[in-house]
């Protein structure tokens, strides 16, 4: 049996299309390395950030929330959330890649764990946004990867066939969830490797 033709390319966003540069961001704000480690452990990679991604914790109350989680650092937490627009930066390779995929006839979608208000703030300046065929933002749907329900939501909302989808993400657990549903997958490790793997699959 011939392998189904890939028609849809689905991208994760953070650390795939954009640099989630939280450590450099905090250095830009003048935080010490000890404070950066404290914030990474208790905020960025914590279950609390997962609640932001799921839309269960409102970004407007995040500073107050994290001041309770990380006591004694109210000034740094306030600074962190006041300048949060600067925590991400689009990779220069992202738009050219999506442009190439669109020119080759593929539909392109985003499937991202992202807090909803931060998505409203950050995503509007992405240079590739107007080329997209659709997107699912976890914070708006109250489901996060790797829950199979968020992948199912994407394919049902846009009328896709899973076997015609290629999903690209930088986290193995999210890749495994997509593969279990019948999608082709690529674990993102960098743009050179990604273009090479797309070429091997006959996509670019």
Any key phrases for this structure?
single chain, 204 residues, alpha/beta, five-stranded parallel beta sheet, two-stranded antiparallel ribbon, elongated
Rg estimate, integer Å: 18 Å
Q: Going across the biggest sheet, name each strand in turn.
A: 5-4-1-6-7
Main sheet summary: 5 strands, parallel
Q: How many helical elements? A: 11
Classification by helices and strands: alpha/beta
Mean pLDDT value: 96
Regions with little confidence, pLDDT below 50 for 5+ residues: none
What's the shape?
elongated
Q: Helices and strands, in N-to-C order? A: EEHHHHHEHEHEHHEHEH
Termini separation:
23 Å
| Strands, count | 7
Q: Any overview of this molecule?
A:
- By secondary structure, this protein is an alpha/beta fold.
- The chain is 46% helix and 14% strand.
- The protein has eleven helices and seven strands.
- The strands form two sheets. A five-stranded parallel β-sheet has the order 5-4-1-6-7, sandwiched between helices. The protein has a two-stranded antiparallel ribbon with strand order 2-3.
- Strand 4 (107-112), helix 7 (116-122) and strand 5 (134-137) form a beta-alpha-beta unit.
- Helix 1 crosses helix 2 (33-44).
- The longest helix has 12 residues, at 33-44.
- It is elongated, with a radius of gyration of 18 Å.
- The model has no long low-confidence stretch (mean pLDDT 96).
């Amino acid at each position: 049996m011939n392998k189904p033709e890939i028609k849809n390319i689905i991208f994760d966003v953070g650390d795939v299309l954009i640099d989630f540069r939280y450590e450099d961001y905090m250095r830009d704000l003048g935080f010490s390395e000890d404070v950066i480690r404290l914030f990474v452990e208790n905020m960025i990679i914590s279950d609390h950030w997962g609640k932001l991604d799921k839309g269960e914790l409102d970004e407007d109350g995040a500073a107050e929330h994290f001041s309770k989680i990380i006591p004694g650092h109210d000034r740094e937490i306030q600074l962190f959330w006041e300048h949060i627009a600067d925590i991400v930066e689009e990779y220069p390779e992202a738009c050219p890649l999506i442009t190439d995929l669109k020119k080759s006839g593929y539909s392109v979608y985003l499937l991202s764990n992202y807090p909803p208000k931060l998505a409203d703030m950050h995503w509007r300046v992405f240079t590739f946004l107007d080329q997209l065929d659709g997107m699912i933002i976890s914070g708006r749907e109250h489901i996060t990867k790797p829950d199979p329900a968020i992948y199912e939501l994407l394919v049902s909302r846009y009328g896709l066939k899973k076997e015609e989808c290629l999903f690209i993400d930088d986290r193995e657990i999210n890749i495994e969830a997509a593969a279990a549903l019948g999608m082709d997958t690529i674990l993102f490790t960098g743009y050179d490797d990604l273009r090479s793997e797309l070429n091997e699959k006959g996509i670019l």
